[in-house]
Amino acid sequence: MAKKLAGTSSNVHFHDIPDVILSNIFSLVTDTRTRNAVSLVCLKWHLLERSTRKSLTLRGNIRDLFLLPTCFRAVTNLDLSFLSPWGHPLLDSSPNPVLLAQLLRNAFPSVVSLTVYVRNPSTLHLLAALWPNLRDVKLIRWHQRLPTPIGSDFIALFEHCHTLSSLDVSHFYCWTEDLPPAFEAYPYIGACLSRLNILKNSSADGFKSHELLAITAFCPNLREFLATCTFDHRFIGFVGDQTLLALASNCPSLSLLHLVDATSSSKVRADPNDEGYTSEDASISHATLADVFAGLPLLEELVLDVCHNVRDAWPALEVLNSRCPRLKSLKLGQFHGICRSIDYRPDGVALCQGLESLSIKNSADLTDTALVAISLGCPRLSKFEVLGCNRITVIGMWKLAYALQKTLVDVKIFYCKNFDAVSSLQALEPIRDRIERLHIDFVWENVEQSEGQTGSSNQPGGFENFEAGKRGIIREERSVRKKCKSYALGNDNLFSSRTWNKLHYLSLWVAAGELLTPLSLAGLDDCPALEEIDIKIEGDCRDQPRPSMDAFGLSSLACYPRLSRMNLDCSGVIGYALTAPSGRADLSLWERFFLSGIENLHLNELNYWPAQDMDVNQRSLFLPAAGLLAQCGTLRKLFIHGTANEHFMMFLLRIPTLRDVQLREDYYPAPENDTSTEMRVDSCCRFEDALNSGQVPD
C-alpha cells in the first residue's frame, strides 16, 4: 500500500488517488470474488466497493433475515431467483410477507432491474408496489401455472411499474393467452416496452399468429422482440406471410427479431442419411421476406428458425443485405439455397458483408463452395455455426477457417454427417492459434471424404476467378488434402502435438455409452488456457446393455491445468430410475459411469444435470453420484439441476471448500410436491445450516 506509483519520483500512498477516480476503477471490476477481495483491503475500499456495486445475485435462505445485507444500497440489478428453498414461493415462507418485502426494499432502494422466481401472483403483488421504478424485469417459473384468471400473473407488475421497458418471460411458464389481455388492460405498458422476450423455453407451446399480432400492436416501440411460434401451416394460428408482414408493420424500429418454431428445441437428431428436407414447406414466400426486410431497416440481429423448408432463399437474403445495412448477426434454420456460389462468387447470404455472427441450421444444399463464398463475402465473421448440414466436408470448412483466420474465434460444428471429432479439429487448423470458443460432436469414427460430392471444392483451380489475394487459398489445398488422406489412413495423432493457445471454452456433444477418453488423441491434449468445458450427453440407455467400461473418461480432462468450471448435462440421457429389466442398467449405474474420475479434476464450479426417467418425470441424484461428487476436494460451487435425497446431500459436506450448493428443478414441469424421500423445505434448511457451520479455507 505504501509503494510508490509508477512514473512518480516520490512515495505516494494509493489513498492519495481521489475517491472519484477510485470509484471509477472499482466500477470497472465485474468479477464478484475479485470485488469481495478488494473490499477486504481496508475500510475505505470496503465502502467504495459497496457504493459502486451495481449488480447482485442474492443467495442464502429467505428465512435468515438477519443475514440480509444492507450495505449494497447502490445496487440497481438485483437477482432474487436463486434464494433458497429454490422454486418455493418467495415470501410465503415468512409469517409476515409484507414485512419481508419491505425489508428487501429498504436494503436495495435503487433497484431498477429485477429477476425473481414467481411461483404464484402474490410475489409480484408485494414486490412490484415497493419498486415502482422497475425498468427491466425477468420472471422465472418452471412449475405449472396456478388456476388463476387469464393474465393475472402480470396484473400487479403492469399496474405499479409504469416505466417498464424490458420484460423477459422466456423461463416463465404461463399460457400464451395470458399476455394479450394484460397488454390490452394496460396499453401504456406496451407503448413503453423496448424489449420483449416471450421465447417459451419452459414448454413446447408457441404463440399463435393472432396472439403475436395483438402483442406487437400493443408494443409498437419494440427494438428487441423474441418469440416462439408455429410455422407449420397444418396448425391453426400458424405464422405465414401475412403475420410476418404485419409484425414488421407493427414494430418498424426492431433491431433484434428472433422467431423460432416451437418444435425447434424438442427435435431429436435426425437420420444422418436424410437429405435434410422436411415433409412440409413453410408458408413463407421470397417476396414476403424481401418486404419484411425492407420494413425493418434498423435490424442488427435476425433469427428465423422455422423448422420447415424455405427453399431457394438466396434472393431474399440479398435483399436483407441491401435493406438492413446494420445487420451483424444472422441465424437461419431450415433455409435452403442460401448461397448458390456459382464459380465461387458470393451471392445470397454471402453478400451480407457486415455479418460478425452467422449460424446455419439444417440447410440441405449447403456445400463447400458455399462455405468458400461465405468466407470471402463476409470477411468480418468472428462467430460461425453449422448445424445439421450434411453436404459440407472438411475441405470446405478448412478453407473457410483459412480465409477468416484473422477474425474467426468462435466455431460450432454440430451434427454434420461428414464431421467427427478428428475431422472437425483438422478443419479448424488455420485458426488453432486464435480460436477461443469451440463446439464439436465427440463422434469417434472414420468419416470418408466424398470426393465426388456435388458442390464440393475438391477440384483444383476453383479460385481462378478471384483476385490474387484470394488465390493463396489454392496453395493450401494440397496440404489439407494430404492431411485428410493421412487421417483416412488412420493417423489419429495428426495434430496431437499442436497447441490451442487461446481456447478457453470447449463444448462437446457425446452419445450415451460412448467414451470421452480419446479426447487428447483427437488433437486437444494441449489447451493451456482452457477454463470451462460443457459436456452434453444424450441417448436412450433403456435399450443399451450395461456400460462395458468402468468410467466415461472425465479423468482424462486432468491434462488441462486451468480447467475450473464444468457443465455436465446428462438431462438428455433416458433410463430407468427404478428397477431396470434383466440385463439392463438403471440410472444409478449410468451415473457412476458418467461421473467416475471427476474427483481427479481441480474444479471450482460444477453444474450437473442428472439423467432422467421420463415415465415418472424424475431427475434425481443417486448414491453413486453423491459419493463421487463428495470426493471433489476443490469444489466451491455445486448446482444440481434436479432432486436428491437429504442423506445423499449430506455426503457433500465432506468437500472442504464447498461454499454454495443448490438443487434447482429448472425443467418443465418441475415437481409440484416434494415426496418424503426428496429434499423438502426443512431438508434444505438442515443442509444449509450444516454447510454454513463449516469453515471455508479462504
What can be said about this structure in brief?
The protein has 698 residues and is α/β, with parallel strands linked by helices.
Describe this structure in words.
With about 700 residues, the protein is α/β, with parallel strands linked by helices. Helix 1 crosses helix 3, helix 9 (about 210-220) packs parallel to helix 10 and helix 15 packs antiparallel against helix 17. About 25% of the residues lie in helices and about 15% in strands. The strands form two sheets. The protein has a 20-stranded parallel β-sheet, covered by helices on one side. It has a two-stranded parallel sheet with strand order 19-21. The longest helix has 13 residues, at about 680-695. The protein is globular and about 70 Å long. Pfam families: F-box_5 (PF18511). This is RNI superfamily protein.
